[in-house]
Amino acid sequence: TTSPRPVHPIPLLPYHRIHLLFGANTDVGKSVVSTGLVRAAAAASSQQQLKSVNYIKPLQCGGSDESFVLRHHRDDDEKRTNDSNGEQPNFGINCETLFRWETPASPHLASRWENMPVSDDEVISSLRSSLKNIKDDGELNRSDDMRSITIVESAGGVLSPSSSSPLNTSTAESHWGWSTQADLYAPLEIPVVFVGDGKLGGISVTLASLEALWSRGYRIDAVVFIEGEVSGNENDDSDGGGSIQFGKGNTEALREYIAMQQRKESMLDGDSIICLPSLPPMPIPLDD
User: What pLDDT digit, counting tens, does each position of 167-177 carry?
Assistant: First the structure.
C-alpha cells in the first residue's frame, strides 16, 4: 500500500457554483434531479450571463447517466427552438464521465471483475483537474458574478463503495481496498444536494444517510424527494381511506426530525426540503 496524498478542499468561488449530488440509495432519482438542475441552469444562462453549465459523473458502472442528461437536455433544446419560431437557442452544457466500467454493479466489484482498478487518489485528482479547468475559464473574466454551475453526481448511495484499487490504503491480502462514497469526497468540502428515498421504508435510509454526511462534515444545502409510491384508493374520501403518498410523508418526517434535533450543523429549513411528483412511465417525456 501507499500513503495517501493530503486532499485539500475545493475552493468555493463566487463565480463557480459547485454541488455534489448524493442519494439515499440506488434508484432514488439522482440522475433525474441532476438533469433538472443542469437544465434549469442552462435555461437561465442568458439571464444570468453564465459562461458554462457542467455535469460530471466521476464513477459510472454500466449504462450512461451522462447520456441521460444530454438526451433530456436536447429534448428541452428542441422544445425551446419550437417555442422561439425556429431560432436556435444557445443552451449548451458540458458533460463528462471520469471513469467507466461496463459491468452494472458496485464500482468496487466492477473494477475488480474488469481488472481496471482506480484508486481514491486517481478519482480525486481527476475530479479536481476537471473542476480546475472550469475554474480557470471563469478566472479569465473574474468577477463576483456567477459564471459557471457544476453538478457532480456520486454513484449509488452515501455509503456505497467507490472503485477499488491495490493502491488504496485499505487494501488487504485478500482484496483491493475501497472507500465509501461519503469518505471519498469528504475532504473536498463540496456542498451537497441530497436525494432522499420517497418510497415506503425510505425515512430510515434517508435519515441514516444524512447523519452519515453530517458526521463527515458535509454541508447539505437542499434535500429532494421524488414521490415513489402511492398506496390506497385515491377516490376513497372516507375516514381512514384515501391514498397515502409516501414521498410527501417522508418529506414531512425529515422536516420534523430536523426541528426535533435542532441540529446546529444543518442549514436546512422547510423551503430547502421539497417533494417532486412521481415520474411518468417511460418513454413519456419528463416534461409531461
Answer: 999 889 889 99
Contact 127, 119 (CB under 8 A): no
Rounded Cα distance, 206 and 176, in Å: 29
Q: Which of 224, 214, 222 is nearest to 264 (CA)?
A: 214
Using the predicted structure, report yes or no on whether residue 233 has a pLDDT greater than 90. no
pTM of the complete model: 0.85
Asked whether the predicted pLDDT for residue 240 surpasses 60, the reply is: no
Residues with Cβ < 8 Å from 246, sequence gap 6 or more?
198, 199, 200, 202, 227, 228, 229, 230, 231
Reference 171, options 124, 226, 121, 119; nearest CA is: 119
CB 15 within 8 A of CB 54: no
pLDDT value at position 261?
81
Q: Is the separation of the CB atoms in 142 and 15 below 8 Å?
A: yes
If you ran DSSP here, which 8-state letter would residue 180 be given? Answer: B
Q: Which regions of the chain does DSSP assign to beta strands (E)? A: 16-23, 52-61, 94-101, 148-153, 192-195, 220-226, 230-232, 243-245, 273-276
Q: Which value, in Å, is the radius of gyration of the alpha carbons in the chain?
A: 20
Question: What is the rounded average pLDDT for all residues in the chain?
Answer: 84
